Amino acid sequence: MTTTDGPPPTGATTAPFDGDGALTLDRDNIQPGDPLTATGTGCEPGSVVSLSSLGEDVGTAKADGAGTFSARVEFATIQPGRHVVRADCGVVLVGSVDVALTSSTGGTTSTLVVLVFFLLVGAVLVRRQFAGVFGGRARGDHAQEDHAREDRA
Known about the structure:
Helices cover 31% and strands 29% of the residues. It is of the alpha+beta class.
């Protein structure tokens, strides 16, 4: 390891911060399309805040007189997993969010299939029951008519 005595390198884009700064995301877990807001403290008053994740710009804001900001985080494309959101306002603040992909159509489709199945089974059972009631009465009516004819003859 080599050390040198001398002035620090010039041209640094991130200045050291002499206070407490923080980036807070309003949700720990999201699904694609869910709203997400980043709130931060510790920026220079009036500074522009650039939000990024994996090198992609996901939002911008301007720090108020107290050095705080709030901005909506919008991912153009997002993959499942943990995403680190970085806010750069002269000070770099970092937060993270977990992205989960879920499908609601699979559960709805299977529920619908089960419901239709039981409706059809119920309809068949009701039809058989009524067929037996009406069919038995009809046969019984024919038997009574046959007895009446025999009595007349």
